[in-house]
Amino acid sequence: MVRTEFPFAVETVDPLWITLADGTRIAATLWRPRTDAKVPVVVEMVPYRRRDGTVARDIDIHPWLAGHGIACARIDIRGSGDSDGDLADEYLPREQQDACEIIAHLAALPWCNGNVGMTGISWGGFNALQVAACRPPALKAIITNCATDDRYADDIHYMGGALLTEQEMWSNFMLVKKAMAPDPQIVGDAWRAMWMDRLAATSSLSEVWLAHQRRDEYWRQGSVCEDHSAIECAVMAVCGWEDSYSNFVPRLLEHLPGPKLGIVGPWSHAYPCRGAPGPLIGYLQEALRWWRHWLCGEDTGIMDEPPYRVWITGEERPQPFYLPDHAGCWVAEDQWPSPRIERRTLHLNAAGLRSEPAHGATLSVRSPATAGRDCGRWGGYGGSCPDMPIDQRREDGMALCFDTQPLDDDLTLLGAPELDLLVIVDQPHVNLSARLCDVYPDGTSALMSYGVLNLSHRDSHEHPTPCLVGAPFRVKLKLNDFARTISKGHRIRLALANQHWPILWPQPKLSTLSVATGDSTVMLPVRPPSSLDRDVRFEPAETAPPVPTTTLDEGFDRRIVTDDVGSGEQTIALTSDHGRRRYDDRAITVSSSNSDTMSIGNDDPLSAKLVTEYRWAIASADADTEAMAVTELTADETHFNLSWRLEARERGKLVHSASATRRIRRDFA
User: Fold this and answer.
1) What count of other Cβ atoms lies within 10 Å of the Cβ of residue 405?
2) Are residues 576 and 610 in the same domain?
């Protein structure tokens, strides 16, 4: 629902300039309620360009809060949008220092009551946590959406010590983002010189990220899990089960020492008032209650809510996307981890998952390099984009599967399954993929949760060692948190594979993984009903009126999978054209598109190839600019082969190009 009437009229200041101590000018947009009373301010800092990048979501959210008495400042971080400087990398200490300066500056403005909040989704959720750990005095509370407290283990780069292909897609996206010109409507004639400086400083961040394949100091910086106690302000953590970052919510609830609330719904990587799949909730109403409590000193009842409110997914068939809503219901826990959750242990026996061990045969799997394609995308976006996991029967056929008997009653799981396996491998470098599936009576297999582990990292992400070849060793693996009710008559399946393409980059050689039956277990987090469940309520989703927009060209999303039965090569081609639109209130026209092509041969992990391309064009005033980047990744047994190319054009004419090819040694990845 779009709200058009608010308690306060809203004044918009764009640009609001903030000059840092080193002379860098930071550009912001400020939405402030018209009132003589002093009000708090909530800060969001991301590099995605406030004028023409995130403007649609910004206008949905920040004016709504300002209309209810909470000022909001949307910041272009250093080197992005209209701000000075160089965006050298993500989550640098310099970014956190800038944020502390900005918070102090805003808190001291005459209209501010001295209390500041920080919010954001993804990058903005990350830096909200990082800045909270810096403890700037004026920062009283944060709301962090779709973020993480562990940059190595739970971000877009590595998972379980294995390389995510999403890393190279992301670095290519950032190549273009960094290469776009500032808005001449804001910075004036200086825009072209600023643009040239940015282009000269732009290179692929994958060169940096691939140089750190272990959990070293580079990743520890900015990972607040290194010391959760550093965060003393109040924290609300929000995510959706279809997002790749949902693990951070229960972890923060477990480890943060201060006031905290967690909400996990059915959504993908989006705010809960505007994302997909639904159902959506009145997220802004929850945020308003939070900010009024912590920044205005009002008793809004927000801290009387259960600390953990969670969507339990119900029975539904797996689909490539979900519109409009997921099946399920809301439940609540009054603490997390919850002592109510039963840790039910099942043994991996030759006959399947059973409550008692039956020692016997050692079972083996040798997955082809193409295994994993139906498991969806690591960073799926829901909505109409066909990147969710589909029926897992093909994947199960290339895995070692252990099933329960059909369930006698409905069973609800909430939390993270944990594996304890006794395994034998025939190669020193092996990736393990474990999937937990809901198997319907007709055989349909729906993915509930998964986890992966580079077995060289079985003891440490800092100090990996080769696997013991031919000798049994223990492996412990925690799968992703999830919540689902499995219906009576269904079975639970644990599927083990040693490939997970294209989510994971494969190890150099195919391998055989053997599991000792009777000596291996899976723990399932079984949740009984709670009296709190019936009282979980959210108001309907609301936003402010959208930014006035004219759609000039419609976009589309497409996923095409091709299997060459002669060569055994598989190609997955993802294309998203985001269309072309004009933001009428600021006379800016934007268009963008991206494509990702991943190919691999059935029997040859070294044939894996990723080519990712992103294009973005912006026309504002006398600037008509476009940037296009292509990144390609291949590998041999010892090295990753990374190449990238960036081109920038003004009115169709090439004004800058840069490229590089790098060989980066594989470090157990």
Assistant:
1) 11
2) yes
434 neighbors 448 (Cβ within 8 angstroms): no
497 with 636, same domain: the answer is no
249 part of a folded domain: no
- Is 380 in contact with 246 (CB distance < 8 Å)? no
Query: What 8-state DSSP symbol labels residue 305?
Result: S
In whole angstroms, give the CA distance from residue 81 to residue 76.
Answer: 6
Rounded CA separation 278/416 (Å): 23
Nearest to 240 by CA among 210, 271, 214, 215: 271
Beta pairing, strands 653-665 & 411-415: unpaired
> The whole model's pTM is what?
0.97
Per the CB < 8 A criterion, the answer to whether 655 and 667 are in contact is: no
Q: Does residue 525 sit in the same domain as residue 573?
A: no
- Token couple for 196: 């040239």
On whether the CB atoms of residues 138 and 115 are closer than 8 A, the answer is yes
**3-state SS assignment for residue 420:** strand
Tokens representing residue 359 in the block? 């020692």
Measure CA 457 to chain center: 22
Q: pLDDT digit string (tens) for 257-315?
A: 999 999 999 999 999 999 889 999 999 999 999 999 999 999 999 999 999 999 999 99
Nearest to 62 by CA among 275, 267, 291, 301: 291
**What kind and span of H or E run contains 661?**
strand 653-665
